[in-house]
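Box 3.1 A note on notation
Throughout this textbook, protein chains are presented in two layers. The first layer is the amino acid sequence; the second is a token string describing backbone geometry. Keep the layers aligned when reading.
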Amino acid sequence: MTYVMLVGTDVALLEGLAQSLAGLGHRPAVTTSLSDARELAASLPPLVLVIDRELASSAGAELLAVPIAAGGARLLYRSAAMHPAPLLPALQRAVLADLTLPLERHRLAALVQSVGDRAKATGKSPRTTPPEQRAQ
């Protein structure tokens, strides 16, 4: 189960993706602004951060201030009708993939699964303790 944060202004698209990811067993969260994402990630960093490319372009290096879990990844997305917005070189290097959604939703699901599996294999995935074994 991978915690995925989806950030963008197209709420209908993000909710559809969230439902698809939840159906695959992941835990999605949707926010509409970078400041909301930063606040939410401060308490629980996502393993995968999926953000609108236009929002990332306007935010610049501020996007790198949004924490992600160890072994996590940042993914960008844009709609098919939009031309890719320019990105800072540091941001380009910090991004695992640039997707065209919803056309590449299966690729998104595969990337989320791959990042989750990689984190689990390297021991960087968050551990969940069963309730009966937790300290009281």
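The mean pLDDT is 89. Residues 25 and 64 are 27 Å apart (CA to CA).
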